[in-house]
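ARCHIVE CARD
Drawer: 12
Card no.: 0347
Subject: one protein chain, sequence and derived structure
Cross-reference: see card 0346
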Amino acid sequence: MCSIKDFIIFNVARFDRMRRRPLLDILTFMIKRSKQVVVHLRDRLHMVFHDIVLSDSQFFHKVALERPELSRVRNEVDKVDLEQAKIEIMTYMKNRDVPRFHFNRGERQKLMKILESRFPESRRRTIELAEEILTHRFYFLGKNVHFDGKINWHSSLTNDKRWPFSFSPNIDYFSAHRIGDIKLAWELNRTQHFTILGKAYWYTGDERYAKEFANQLLSWIRENPYKLGINWMEGIEIALRMFSWIWSYYFFLDSECFDKRVHFEFLKCVYMHAKFIMDHLSDKWQINNNHLISEAAGLALIGIIFPEFKEAERWRKRGMDILESELDIQILPDGVDWEQSTGYHKFVTDLYLQTVNLAMRNGVQVSKAFLSKLSQMIEFLNYITKTDGRIPVVGDGDDARVVRIDETDYDDARSTLRIGSIIFNRQDLLSVKSEEAFWLLGEESLAEGSEPVSAGNKIFRDGGYVVFRGKDRYLLFVVGPQSSKYLHASHKHLDMLSLILDAYGTCFLVDPGTYTYFGDFKWRKYFKGTKAHNTIVVDHKDPVDIEEAFELSRVPFARIINYATENKTDWVEARHDGYFPVSHVRVIIFVKQEYWVIIDLLEGSGEHRYDLYFHFNHGLEIRINEKDQSILATGLTGSVKINPLVTSGLRGEILRGEISSRYGTKVEAPILRYSKRGSSQIFVTLLYPYKNGSIGERLARSIKVSQINVFGKRKKRYKDSEVIGIKIDFGAYVDYIIHSHEEKCISLGIVKQAGKIMHFRKEREKDLRAL
């Protein structure tokens, strides 16, 4: 058991974390927390005398024996012949036709034949991974894990220490005294490798895989008594473990290794998982997060799949009700998850899709409002998905997935979009065949779908995202939620006014990722900070202090000021004042199908150092032209030319940086930094992507960016602080772009226009092939 000292340290860290919340949020937490405090005290008192266990006889009291189909079980219980009652209930469970799971285990041979035909690599890779699991070798969150002998479910996995085997609520996992990154241990205990064993068993019929599953299952149950140790701490971990177990249940139900003893212990532990979730729901705040959605999905799953429990209907209804209500609370009106993390948006969408699919297959009513909001979530995912089918990393990402049914990466959105396109009959979504979609939806998922994602640009005003998309070109502008009530998202980074650039199958400008939650705090602080994003940093500092892994001292508010779509250009203007008294306004102008111009306006008092950061993906060849400070970043199939407007004091340099495309891993990657000093300043940057070997490559060589004078009424020249005029010379033609901070009458020679943005082109040669 934990010491009094450990208990005090843990709770001091907990309250220190909570104090940064708004007062109303803290009051809400304290009121809702009181119920769980009572539950913890009750369970703690029980543990003074013995572990909290569910005996065989108590289990049968949890079963709805009055159901007609369980009459044989009831007869044996009435006779107090519990061993025979176990046999009867196991026989019933193996032979029941309802409820229906995502796939029909009675069609095993047919399903595997289709899989081998349509996904030929799946068999080889599945068996290869399953063989490693037999030797207790695992790979997750950037770490190779090997147990020489039995699996230690309480290992820290980061050192030779073991997490305390004490009362779960008192284990310190986030203060400075923690023994390591608990994410690694929790990832192992989600047991998502069970589905790999299950698939390997279905492919081969080899009972070794079933035996390994049974042994690991019994080992986990034996070594993790209720509310002892790290695996009874967070409801999300309990819920995701249930997804893994129940998927595996349908793979192994007919195996001789999944015998009466294993089956019965499995059902008892499923009940305890449901009990834990119900007693410890994460509904403590005004606005909760993906944990509550995970718990609700887990409750709905258990309630639907195991209606034999007396409380099943209560679990199912409670889970479905929470899922529906949280759609209105956590999902903004434009379908964007409030946590400001694209990875968690996809994760939550997958939870909803699995639950809705299971509910529909079992006649559980789902409201139109529920389905409409879920469709919006999928639409947002579709718009932000890049041409390679992956979502860009924004905010935290921890490789979370609901089940591990195939080997696609967690940021691959194609399965999610395929499932969504079928459930909602939407032809506008990216829709390609996927193994995960096949397991959920069967042969219907194998019909030919549409290849392209939605074309064109899109603003998600509530969520604070703008997508600019052209042919083979993609830019995502990250502003942030447009309501201050959503600023305390614990997975948000200090990425105000950042951007991500992808073109011709290569991601050139990236969000460097997350790397760790509970590891070395200096890395958590770096990857969450402003310097790790493609935006402006003032005086080498973050706009707010990052004092803890999931909380900020205060949260800067960024807002979209203007957005317009026109014939040849689309543009957006956004602002944040996190560096008060300095304000940062960023304007992104998309000259459709060609390039972007980024205008950064910094206004404030006093002298400051301004750094404009661009983080490149690893594996790119980077060259800097010292004469005009331009950068050429070259990938295998495409390149991007970055040309700044060279003004007094501008200095460009290439730095060594780090990016983390997966939790727990990081690699070196170059950073471009443009710097200036002064009071108010303006940065203008051209991003010109092109396909290697195309005419765009020839145009890129000749690009020159310069400033021009802009005049107003009576031929009075505007100051740079009022209007900025840009000339972009491509050799064959010249583009002129004018940006006015306020709507003004802009004049450039004989061309006049009222507004904030003006763009026009002067052709030098009509036939570009002459280049």
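Annotation on reverse: The CA atoms of residues 51 and 225 lie 7 Å apart. The domain at 283-454 is CATH 1.50.10.100 (Glycosyltransferase).
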